[in-house]
Amino acid sequence: MSHFAQVENGVVARVIVAEQDVIDSGIFGHGWVQTSYNTHGGQHPEGRPLRKNYAGIGYTYDEQRDAFIPPQPFASWLLNEDTCLWDAPVAMPTEGGPFAWNEEAQSWVVIPAVAEVIIEAPAPADTATTQG
């Protein structure tokens, strides 16, 4: 079975798993484009990338590039033509972190660590019964 994205006006409306002959039958309508679950950024573990990225609902299908492109996460990010993914204007640091993009500051900021919370279970109730 293969994955297929239904594209309406250049935007992915849904993604399903089906056999090619079912898609060809038209039972699910038209506008289906095959996508590969294992393709990301133009790479595939077996060396056979398909349409740059696995399609997701809301992704754009660009016929000229023959690629699925995710929504732009921030206005300042630019489309990488090789991967059809969005690149931040400043590379994310490789040490420290974790990081999140701050669009207003146009930089990566460290996400504060969340304190680990340990919840102790209450002691079990005495289940011994007395006989009378």
Mind explaining what this structure looks like?
It is a single chain. The N and C termini lie far apart (67 Å). The longest helix is centred in the N-terminal third of the chain and has 6 residues, at 20-25. 5% of the residues lie in helices and 30% in strands. It has one domain (2-110). A hairpin with a 2-residue loop joins strand 1 and strand 2. It is mainly β. It has one helix at residues 20-25, and strands spanning 2-8, 11-18, 32-35, 60-62, 67-69, 78-80, 85-87, 99-102, 107-110. The relative contact order is 0.13. The protein is extended and about 60 Å long. The strands form four sheets. A three-stranded antiparallel sheet has the order 2-1-3. Strands 4-5 form a two-stranded antiparallel ribbon. The protein has a two-stranded antiparallel sheet with strand order 6-7. It contains one helix and nine strands, in the order E-E-H-E-E-E-E-E-E-E.
In terms of topology, how is this protein built?
Layout: E1 2-8, E2 11-18, H1 20-25, E3 32-35, E4 60-62, E5 67-69, E6 78-80, E7 85-87, E8 99-102, E9 107-110
Antiparallel strand pairs: 1-2, 1-3, 4-5, 6-7, 8-9
